[in-house]
Amino acid sequence: MSKVVKFGGSSLASAEQFKKVGDIVRADASRKYVVPSAPGKRFKEDTKVTDMLYGCYELAEQGKDFKKALGEIKERYQEIIDGLDLDLSLDDEFAVIGKNFREKAGSNYAASRGEYLNGIIMAKYLGFAFVDAATVIFFNEDGTLDEEKTNEVLSVKLAECDKAVVPGFYGSMPDGSVRTFSRGGSDITGSIVAKAAKVDVYENWTDVSGFLIADPRIIENPQGIDVITYKELRELSYMGATVLHEDAIFPVRQQGIPINIRNTNAPEDNGTWIVGSTCQKSKYVITGIAGKKGFCSINIEKDMMNSEIGFGRKVLQAFEENGISFEHVPSGIDTMTVFVHQDEFMHKEQKVVAGIHRLAKPDSIEIESDLALIAVVGRGMKSTRGTAGRIFSALAHANVNVRMIDQGSSEQNIIIGVANEDFETAIRAIYDIFVITRL
Ligand code: ASP
User: Fold this and answer.
1) 254: pLDDT confidence band, cut at 50, 70 and 90?
2) Are residues 183 and 191 in contact, defined by beta-carbon separation less than 8 angstroms?
3) What is the DSSP letter of 138?
4) Measured from the CA of 181, which atom of ligand 1 is nearest?
5) Are 139 and 179 in contact, with CB atoms under 8 Å apart?
6) What is the number of the ligand 1 atom nearest to the C-alpha of 189?
């Protein structure tokens, strides 16, 4: 049995947090590969080291004095080193970083140092080998991951070390320069390492005990999710439920490696298991509810639309030409509706409308704004009668007017459109009916 364990920024924000991480890693000999983030916030108003690095580098790029800002970053690490009583000095590392900043090594390089330095400390603290991610994770010229080369080099390297620390968030470009993933990208590194090392489990340690059925800002103390499939997770994260970086799913999913989301501050909790498929039924008919506000719908009408070949393509072309991606396209016999993000659409609205007129020659176009979409997701819905009925009667009882319904062909999700101002009420009504009263 072997595991990759990735720790998020809040799990590594201070020496005290590092000690918890050390205990977790040492408690299980199969935790062989550790992927650390940079130190995150120690308290609510604190600044993440990654953000400090971006800020510091900006000064360097503007030719301003960045000594003080870099000194503050060094202090964050020194505090951790002192708190752990480590015989380690980062003086040489910081001298190199300062020099590279002066030589304008780029903001990607700057941000990556957060994980790099934390990796050095972690390796020393645990007595594991340190593997610089720039030597084992590779990007293509266009910034996408070079999966093949990465997997080849990384798996050979990991096979050489019994236990290793690979810092998250970055790798290198074909010219050798450092590049980072998008924010939160250490999750992706964890997944890539899990794939290359062919481990049994990818544990992702954070500051919550896994996924919750609904957003705790809307539902007080929502229940947790024990097991969720990749597919369900994709649906929920697309709708804004964020615990894990979206791109972290693909590498492990290809290999059938489950992800276990765990809480560094409550290691006794089982957390959430993310799996390919499972015969385990979720406790409730639904696995989760998530949603987002701020959508617009463009309702297009044309007589005999149903028999006009290519109508949908022409409508969507108007969006494509303006660089707008669509979210949902429910359609009727002579109507087609396109849901888009309001903020993306707003300033291109008239161009898109003109494009639809030009390309598809509809009878009319109507635009509605301030809509919210809610996804009710669950692998159990397929085999349960009346799920949709229950959702809509709950919404009717809560006085919520449903503006759109879209059931995905996988039958694992039902998407509901409501007015922005009904968003919270709708989520509460759905949570109530499935989780509280368990109808
Ligand atoms: N430290 C980086 C960030 O703040 C990457 C990560 O934590 O995953 O986005």
Assistant:
1) confident
2) no
3) B
4) 5
5) yes
6) 8
Report which of 135, 144, 209 is spatially closest to residue 167, judged by C-alpha positions.
Answer: 135
Total-model pTM? 0.87
- Summarised one tens digit per residue, pLDDT across range 287-308 is 999 999 999 999 999 999 888 8
Mutation test residue for ligand 1: of 7, 169, 182, 187, the one with most atoms within 8 Å of CB: 169
pLDDT tens digits, residue range 335-371? 999 999 999 999 999 999 999 999 999 999 999 999 9
Q: Which of 12, 115, 118 to mutate to test the pocket of ligand 1 (most atoms within 8 A of CB)?
A: 115
C-alpha to C-alpha distances, 369 to 297, 299, 345, 366, 437, nearest whole angstrom: 6, 11, 10, 10, 33
The Cβ-side half-sphere exposure at 107, using a 13 Å CA radius, reads 13
Report the distance separating Cα 84 and Cα 29, nearest Å. Answer: 21
Whether the CB of 114 sits within 6 Å of ligand 1: yes
pLDDT tens digits along 385-404: 888 889 999 999 999 999 98
Residues 6+ apart with CB under 8 A from 323: 348
Q: Helices marked H in 282-419 — which ranges?
A: 311-321, 342-345, 349-360, 387-397
Question: What pLDDT is stored for residue 439 in this prediction?
Answer: 60
Cα distance from N-terminal residue to C-terminal residue, the chain:
41
Q: Nearest Cα to 40, choosing from 272, 278, 207, 236?
A: 207
Position of tokens 């701020």? 294
Would you call 319 exposed, middle or buried from its count of C-beta atoms within 10 A (0-12, 13-18, 19+)?
A: buried
Q: Which atom of ligand 1 is nearest to the CA of 8?
A: 7
212: DSSP letter: B
Q: Is 185 in the pocket of ligand 1 (CB under 6 A)?
A: yes
Sign of the alpha-carbon dihedral angle for 369, 370, 371, 373:
positive
